[in-house]
Amino acid sequence: MRKLINILGVNIDQFKMREAVARVKNLINTQSHSALVVTPNSEILALASENENLARILNSADLATADGIGVVLASKIMGEPLAERVAGFDLISNLFKEFAASDLNFYFLGSKPGIVEKAIANLKNDYPQINIVGAHHGYLDQASQKKVFREINESKVDLLLVGMGFPLQEKFLDQNLAQLDVGVAITVGGSFDVLAGEVNRAPLWVQRIGLEWLYRLLQEPSRFKRILLLPKFLYLVIKARFLA
Q1: Residues 168-192: pLDDT tens digits?
Q2: What's the structural domain count of the chain?
Q3: Alpha-carbon distance 72 to 210, whole Å?
Q4: Which of 158, 201, 208, 242 is deepest in the core (most CB within 10 A)?
């Protein structure tokens, strides 16, 4: 039974990391349809609060984890505190560890040309036995999309990781997941860039004090406009909790 908290119209699972991993494993083994996992952060929730279609897509997911300290803080404001954040990158890292020696198949879809291949090469250094049955960058025209769909459906993919950035990846899966024979599809944002070594993740101590967003901003100043959504998000949560 899922236990959910609703934040600005979007349902978030009240799972710890180990519970989220178990949920993904269960979805692979039991779902009759291709399952969807999303990892919304405060920026995504702020945008979804003003876009009914995006909120609908997020709420259609079989698992939605709290990706970011802002979401955890919002849950406390709402009076239903989440036990911990379950960031998308951390979730897939735990899934790699859980399934690397199994017979489950991964497919990586997203990022710029060349990035996903570097990500796979680095990942195989840590997990030589991991079954990655295919990969493709995220720039798909009609012909390449048809080719990718055929590869996925012929490869018995258990875990499809889609990293096209929000909201493109969510819209892509909303439109196409029914055509794909996969166990679980997970939106992973910029995770392939991190795995490829193109972007450095914040040190663990920075993550623990909730300043990973600042670390990312210092690396990528172009994210400044996106960061401005964080105070807007907290304002909307406070308004929903106390002023609605």
Answers
A1: 999 999 999 999 999 999 999 999 9
A2: 1
A3: 10
A4: 158
Q: Which amino acid is at 12?
A: I
In a domain, 48, yes or no: yes
d(CA 182, CA 168): 19
State which of 6-10, 203-207, 211-215 shows the largest mean pLDDT.
Answer: 6-10
Domain residue limits at 137: 15-237
**φ, ψ for residue 200 (rounded to 5)?**
-90, 135
Q: How far apart are CA 194 and CA 18, in angstroms?
A: 22
For residue 72, being part of any structural domain is answered with: yes
The pLDDT tens digits of the residues spanning 111-160 come to 999 999 999 999 999 999 999 999 999 999 999 999 999 999 999 999 99
Phi, psi of 159, deg, nearest 5: -130, 110
Cα–Cα distance between 6 and 12 in angstroms, integer?
A: 6
pLDDT score at 1: 75
Q: What is the model's pLDDT at position 69?
A: 87
Q: Classify residue 229 as left (phi > 0), alpha (psi -120 to 50) or beta.
A: alpha
Q: Which residues contact 78 (CB under 8 A, 6 or more apart)?
A: 5, 7, 237, 240, 241
d(CA 191, CA 187): 9
> Cα(39)–Cα(41) distance, rounded to whole angstroms?
7
